[in-house]
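Issue: ligand-bound run for xanthosine-5'-monophosphate - logging full I/O for the record.

Environment: standard queue, default settings, no custom constraints.

Inputs:
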Amino acid sequence: MNEQIVILDFGSQYTQVIARRVRECKVYSTIVRYDTPADELARLRPSGIILSGGPSSVYAADAPMPDRGLFKLGIPILGICYGLQVLAQFLGGKVERGLKREYGKGTLTIRDSWCPLLLGLPGTLQVWNSHGDKLTKLPKGFKSVATTDNSDYAVIEDRARRFYGLQFHPEVAHTPRGREIISSFVHGICSCGRNWTMQNYVQQAVEEIRAQVGREHVILGLSGGVDSSVAAALIHKAIGEQLTCIFVNNGLLRSREAEVVQDVFVRHFHIKLQYEDVARKFLDRLKGVTDPERKRKIIGKTFIQVFEEATKRAGRAKFLAQGTLYPDVIESVPIGGNPAALIKSHHNVGGLPKRMKFKLVEPLKCLFKDEVRQLGLELGLPQEIVYRQPFPGPGLAVRILGEVTAARLTILRNADAIVVEEMKRSSWYYKVWQSFAVLLPVRSVGVMGDERTYDFTVALRVVDSQDGMTADWVKLPYELLETISTRIINEVKGVNRVCLDISSKPPATIEWE
Ligand code: XMP
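Outputs:
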């Protein structure tokens, strides 16, 4: 179970993708900084090491370099792109600036089909390149086993030492056979088994949670989102009655959200749930507030207050559970030329105040989002929760422009329920990142029957995204748009117009606020 591949991060935007691809091969992987000392790496007892790509040039003065001892550990190494150049340069090869940058799709021609990394692949295949420098002289002991038009050394190997290098990116979708190459490295070359499954993880995590918590009590803030829900189900499996979940109904939730959470966690899982109905308090504090930043601040502050009081009422807990995920804890590598790596998620920063002296239980902290979903299914959570779209902490308040009032919340809730219902009915709900309604503080004239109306406008926002940082609007079929629009205008009192938001992020954001 402890078998793992360690990935040295040289600042590539794809480092986490490499880690996920390895895990898809059912082998555990961890990401560490590029300069982690060799003895520390040895202590992790990796079955193999992958050197990621990165934006630097190996001959630059400030190029990130690994500990030289890495190459003496006797552990198989795979260098990808910049990683190949690091490997080659350390072992006596030569890297130079290429005459032209090789970027985009390329064709790889395999020269030695017995190379353990390339076993089972056809003679030529499509690969994805993104590099300016290139290897011009092989290090001693290496040979080239595949080429592209632009490079004689697209894949290199030192079979005896089990060192391999790829000039292209096997981890991205544009290298369709890349998964097989990664699988050959981890299974064929590193001899890893297929032990990293969520079924195994449940057992391991349950033991770890029990060992950490002992006979103490744990509190968890349940939002109804995927992460806190999966954490709750997992911790409950480990310690049952010792877990108390606190669910705060801030009055800014979507239609039936509070009911679903109670239904799943209380009636199905029999989890102890402390339900805090504080809708009134939030609404009172939001009265007359129209500035988006002030709304967020008020909501954040009120939440912390309510939660702190609720934890006191919940009693003698020593531990606080959180659904922190692996991407939140990976130390990012601040390497020049890749500012995107440094832009951390801008929401939910801060967390709970330090005066709340809990020890943390974070059982999802080594998992990626897709693994958390699998884990949720493994634990018996319904699809409705496991595949739920992201929903902002400040809830519908960021989807009501202008003042948040009870009446406006009702309008938006009803409109949003229709969007969700129709998206699910047409199976589009699970194909997109988010799909929701926004209530604009704009009123316009309409006619309904013989009457003139003067009602609000709802905007429909449906986007595709990988991580929320960038997004595209989704081209839904006209028939579906028509059904959503007709239903909202007919069924939701107070709305006489529906618009479709066709802006991408950037420059727009996903939420309107
Ligand atoms: P924006 O609107 O910045 O949103 O494009 C990017 C993603 O983040 C979600 N979002 C939030 N999530 N707390 C959250 O947990 C928040 O305060 C928050 N604000 C926005 C948004 O729904 C989208 O998925």
